[in-house]
Structure formats: C-alpha cells, structure tokens
C-alpha cells in the first residue's frame, strides 16, 4: 500500500492504495488546477442542500454512498477550481475504501492539506 504524500508527510493509520505526490511550492497550484480537470462529472441532480458541505467558503457538494460490495463511493463538485483539485485528491484516496478505513482518516491529514478544518 502507498501513503498519499504531500510536503508535510501527514501520519494516518489509513494507507490508501493510490497516491499523489507533490510539494507545496509554486507548482502546487498547477497540480491542483490539473487535478480539478480530472474530477469525474457530478450529477446536477445532486446539487442539493443536503449534500452541500457547510462551512466552506467555496460552494462544495459531497456525495458519499456505499456500493453493493460494501465499499465507499465518493463524488464532489464545487465552484472553485483550486478547491476542486483538493477534492479530487480526497476522492481519489477515499473512493473504493471500506467504511472503517474512511473512519480511520484523521483530521490532521486534512489540516495538513489546508482544507479549512479547525481542530484535530
């Protein structure tokens, strides 16, 4: 298994089977903008208040479902290309994980990505 690697190398007990590697420097924005183009299309019928992430400065929608094999499936959309790049990273890492693996992800890994969480 491979750990998603960012410049701060956050520690988490969940080791995803997919990886992204880049350093937070001048090129990280380019990476995020590229990742935003890779986020799968989000069904417009899912752009509803119940799927909107509260507390984000960008308008963000997140859909999480469990498939017939018991694995989590995630989709995300928002109105900011950079934020969309962050969500691509999260969807890439968490999609196809078991629910208990998703629950093992610590907010510290998200804090290191600067996705707007407060506390750990």
TrEMBL record:
InterPro entries named among the record's database cross-references: Fe-S_metab-assoc_dom (IPR003808)
Ranges in a coiled coil: none
Lineage: superkingdom: Eukaryota
Residue span(s) of domain Fe-S metabolism associated: 29-108
PANTHER family associated with the record: FE-S METABOLISM ASSOCIATED DOMAIN-CONTAINING PROTEIN, SULFUR ACCEPTOR PROTEIN CSDE
Name of the protein this chain belongs to: Fe-S metabolism associated domain-containing protein
């Amino acid at each position: 298994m491979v750990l998603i690697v960012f410049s701060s190398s956050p520690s988490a007990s969940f080791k995803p089977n997919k990886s992204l590697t880049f350093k937070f420097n001048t090129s990280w924005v380019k990476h995020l903008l590229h990742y935003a183009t890779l986020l799968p299309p989000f069904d417009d019928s899912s752009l509803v208040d119940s799927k909107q992430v509260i507390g984000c400065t960008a308008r963000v929608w997140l859909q999480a479902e469990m498939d017939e094999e018991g694995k989590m499936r995630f989709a995300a959309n928002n109105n900011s290309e950079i934020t969309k790049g962050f969500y691509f990273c999260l969807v890439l890492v968490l999609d196809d994980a078991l629910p208990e693996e998703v629950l093992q992800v610590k907010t510290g890994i998200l804090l290191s990505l600067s996705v707007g969480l407060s506390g750990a």
